[in-house]
Amino acid sequence: MALLLHGSSAVVLPSPSSSSSWVNPSSISSCNSSSPFVVGFSAPAQQRRRSSLVVVASQKSAFNMDYRMNRDFRDFRMALKEEEKEEEKERKEKPPHIPLDQRWMFEESELGGPDIWNTTWYPKAADHVNTEKPWFVVDATDKILGRLASTIAVHIRGKNLATYTPSVDMGAFVIVVLISWMDAKMVNAEKVAVSGKKRTQKLYRRHSGRPGGMKIETFDQLQQRIPERIIEHAVRGMLPKGRLGRALFNHLKVYKGPDHPHEAQMPVELPIRDKRIQKQS
């Protein structure tokens, strides 16, 4: 006879080699459902009791093992949660890693400090806001037209500074912080000088757009009629062509005579380093 134990159920199977001795299933304690096994019984009652004690001991041992495993697993989960909280806290405090090819889109504070690998600087939107452009004033009396115009164009574009950026828009909607991007103002425009025979040989052409509408006049004629246009024409040719150049051209203020309406801007003298700009008498 054999007793099959699995979970909380017990089934008694008769053995053909044994006599008519039967085992009461109720005398055998049920085992843990996770430990199925088959116990053979062909011994007296003392051995059966010993076998039942072994089953109970194995059940208690399995229960204690499961309890320890559950306790260890619970402690492990709690430790894992604490570790995840620490990692999340460090991740919030530490800025995220940004690839080198995408760092130009972020501010320096977002990168976690200065970028020591990519030293290329490009002005951000914050560099164009809430800034005041300096105003310069220059007297055009007896100054060579070309050299004066090139000096003005350099200061209007900001090419005299290390932070010069050729593609930055200085239009009406953006105020660039670069201090070299400035407004130049001309006075005594009618006294600007030219070298050689340009006063009579230099020609200015304009067209009305109609057939036969070409108008040609010399430097001397245009200076007598509209002296401001001579300097505007020279500076416009030295600015970039396009909407950036059109915006920069608005920063040039040319006036006939020594007076100008920009005293509130407190303009300073335009620095001129070219000694050949002044016409020698």
Topology summary:
Blueprint: E1 2-6, E2 9-13, E3 37-40, H1 45-93, E4 135-139, H2 145-157, E5 183-187, H3 198-201, E6 203-207, E7 214-218, H4 219-225, H5 227-236, H6 243-249, E8 252-254, E9 268-269
3D shape = rod-shaped
Order of helices and strands: EEEHEHEHEEHHHEE
Provide mean pLDDT, rounded: 71
Structural Rg:
48 Å
Which blocks of ≥5 consecutive residues have pLDDT under 50?
6-13, 17-21, 28-41, 171-182
In DSSP terms (H or I, runs of 4 or more residues), the helix count works out at 6
- Report the major sheet: 4 strands, parallel
Helix fraction by DSSP (H/I, runs of at least 4): 25-40%
Terminal residue distance: 138 Å
Q: How much strand content do the residues show?
A: 5-15%
Class from secondary-structure proportions: alpha/beta
Strand runs, count: 9
- Provide the spatial order of strands within the biggest beta sheet: 8-5-4-9
What does this structure look like?
By secondary structure, the protein is of the alpha/beta class. It has helices at about 45-95, 145-155, 200, 220-225, 225-235, 245-250, and strands at about 1-5, 10-15, 35-40, 135-140, 185, 205, 215-220, 250-255, 270. Strands 8-5-4-9 form a four-stranded parallel β-sheet, covered by helices on one side. β4, α2 and β5 (about 185) form a beta-alpha-beta unit. α2 packs across α5 (about 225-235). It is rod-shaped, with a radius of gyration of 48 Å. It starts with a strand and ends in a 12-residue tail after the last strand. Residues about 5-15, about 15-20, about 30-40 and about 170-180 have low confidence and may be disordered.
